[in-house]
Design goal:
Strand order of the largest sheet: 3-4-5-6-9-10
CATH superfamily of the largest domain: Glycerate kinase, domain 2
CATH topology of the largest domain: Glycerate kinase, domain 2
CATH class of the largest domain: Alpha Beta
Radius of gyration: 21 Å
Number of domains: 2
Strand content: 15-25%
Number of strands: 13
Length: 376
């Protein structure tokens, strides 16, 4: 029996390659005749570099860049065959890089993301992929753009630091020294967020509170993003107000779209295509996916939703394994989903479950394998 193991990461406990390996071990313990293909996945957030490097037999390089609080951090990037560079915003401006007591997107920056992009542009890659999940920022990409040579000036001509706090202070934009990619370079932003740049569903109101912003911070950041949109239209002739997904990662998507013509693509669809997921699912008998928590968001643009889309296309049954399940949030399950199964096998704290996630996931896969072996 052919099984495809294609989970997301179990955040805080397992990377997606670790999760895929645990699922494979469980099924093969249940019966040696299970043929398990590992296809670990990501949706543009944490783990995208590792997944794509593994899937395309690429290499990982490390670069020292500026972190969200202006400290130096080590960022990993992926170099794939054919002149492709994969970057993760979370490596340079991710929320885990900011201690809980210091989290406030008014004062964090995407400057290090700009340094990663600058590296990719100067190395001459033909395709640059930036996954934008997991940010600690809400600066509209101002920090990243500054690192790429854009100058943001206040009313008195003073250059501004690229942080959300300063969006409202911008009076003039100077692009004379901007560092651009070589002609023909394709810049792709991998994201499955559809929120606009500002407004009730925008970057500040929806996501800034998760990054440490209080109501006053949220109002200031939203006003700054509105102001930034006006300046972009005035200086570049590009309208980003209604750009679907422009509010992803604190608005950096709108900034890179306006200044560099970046193209926004579905993170999970891009990753699935690059690792050959559809071909694997088409030849499978069962598909097994999963993530740390299954809730309402699971079925809207995340890894499991992308897997479900391909299972529906090829009429394959899907099994989902989860560390936690919010049953009250889950809509009626489509017929392709055979079931959603919790991996926790007894009373334990969330901390214990996360620590034991590898064992628990393997054991859950083993139990499913025993259930399915009657079909062998």
């Amino acid at each position: 029996m052919r099984i495809v193991a294609c989970p997301d990461s179990f955040k805080g406990s397992l990377t997606s390659p670790e999760a895929a390996s645990a699922i494979r071990r469980g099924f093969q313990r249940a019966h040696s005749r299970f043929q398990v293909t590992e296809k670990p996945l990501a949706d543009g957030g944490e783990g995208t570099v590792e997944v794509l490097v593994r899937g395309a037999s690429g290499n990982i390089e490390e670069l020292e860049v500026t972190g969200p609080l202006w400290e130096k951090v080590k960022a990993r990037l992926g170099i794939l065959p054919g002149g492709v560079c994969v970057l993760e915003l979370a490596q340079a401006a991710g929320l885990p890089l900011v201690p809980e007591g210091k989290r406030n997107p008014r004062f964090t920056t995407t400057y290090g993301v700009g340094e990663l992009l600058r590296f990719a542009f100067e190395r001459g890659f033909r395709r640059v992929i930036l996954g934008v999940g997991g940010s600690a920022t809400c600066d509209g990409g101002m920090g990243a753009l500054t690192a790429l040579g854009v100058r943001f000036l206040d009313e008195e001509g003073r250059e501004l630091l690229g942080i959300g706090e300063n969006l409202l202070k911008i009076s003039r934009i100077d692009t004379r020294d901007v560092i651009r990619p070589q002609k023909g370079t394709e810049l792709l932003i991998a994201s499955d967020v559809t929120n606009p740049l500002y407004g009730p569903q925008g970057a500040a109101f929806v996501y800034a509170p998760q990054k440490g912003a209080d109501p006053e911070d949220v109002r200031l950041l939203d006003a700054g993003l509105r102001h930034f949109a006006r300046l972009i239209e005035r200086h570049l002739g590009v309208r980003v107000d209604d750009l679907p997904g422009g509010g992803a990662a604190g608005g950096i998507v709108a900034g890179l779209f306006a200044f560099f013509g970046a193209r926004i693509v579905s993170g999970i669809r891009l990753v699935a295509e690059m690792v050959g997921l559809e071909e694997a699912i088409a030849g499978a008998d069962f598909v097994v996916s999963g993530e740390g928590k299954v809730d309402r968001q699971t079925f809207f643009g995340k890894v499991v939703s992308g897997v479900l889309e391909l299972c529906r296309k090829h009429r394959k049954p899907l099994l989902i394994l989860a560390g936690k399940i919010a049953w009250e949030e889950i809509p009626k399950l489509p017929e392709e989903i055979v079931g959603i199964f919790p991996i926790v096998d007894g009373p334990m704290s969330e901390g214990e479950a996360m620590k034991e996630a590898g064992r628990l996931l393997e054991q859950a896969a083993f139990s499913l394998g025993r259930l399915l072996q009657s079909r062998l």
